[in-house]
C-alpha cells in the first residue's frame, strides 16, 4: 500500500527530544510508528465528556474512544478514521480536539478483530493484519459508529469524517458509501493502490461515486503518494462534477500532521487543521 511506503520512507528528523519506549507506552502511544516526540500535543478533557466505550457491530462489541462537549444537546458527529497503528493516544487526542470544537467525535477501533494493534512493535507484523480488513466490513463498522453516536444524542443530520494515513483512504471510500455524510477530510490518504481481495477498488477508481464534499491534504514530499497522483485525483473528481479541494504542502512528508512522529511539520499541520475545521463549517457539520 502506498500509505505504508510513505510511512516507512519519510525522511526522519533528529531523534533528540523523543521519549524512550517505556515512557511512550506509558503515555499510551504505539511503538510500531517509531520514536515518539516528547512534545507531542496533549489536549485536556476539561469541559468534555470523554472515554472508552463500545459500539455494537454485527459480530461483536467494537471498542471506541469518544469525546463530546459537556452539556450540549445534539452536537454534530465526526467519525475519526485511524491510522494503521491502532487506537492509541494520538487518535484519542485528535478526538478531543474535535470535541473542543463542538463535535461528538468517535474513533472506532476498526481493527479490533485483529487484536490490539498498539501492542505490535514491528510494522512488518502489523501490515498483513491491517491489509486483510475488507472494505465492506469497514463500511459496516463506520455505519455502526455513526448509529452509536446518534443513539447517544448526536445529530445524525450533521455527520462528518476525518482520517489520517490509511484513515485518509477510509474517508475517500466512506464518501462513496454513505449518502448521509455531509463532509470529509482526508489527510494523506492513499489514492491508487492496486486492488486486493479485501480492498477491491482504490479511491481513484471510485472517484466518480463520491457523494460528499471532501478536502484532501497531502505532502509534496510523500514518498508513497506523489503530487502527480493527487493532481490526477483532483482532475477526475472535477470531471465528475464532485465537490473537492486539495492542498499539497511543500516540504511535507507523509504523516506531516502526526505530532507524535518524526514526520511532523508544525507549520503545515497548523494550516491543515485550520482548513479542515473551516471545511466542516462550510458544509454545516460544525457550527
Automatic annotation (TrEMBL):
Transmembrane segments: none
Pfam families (alphabetical): DLH (PF01738)
Superkingdom, natural source: Bacteria
Ribosomal protein is among the record's keywords: no
Record key words, sorted: Hydrolase
MF-aspect GO terms: carboxymethylenebutenolidase activity
SUPFAM superfamilies in UniProt: alpha/beta-Hydrolases (SSF53474)
Boundaries of every Dienelactone hydrolase domain copy: 62-283
Entry's EC annotation: 3.1.1.45
Record's protein name: Carboxymethylenebutenolidase
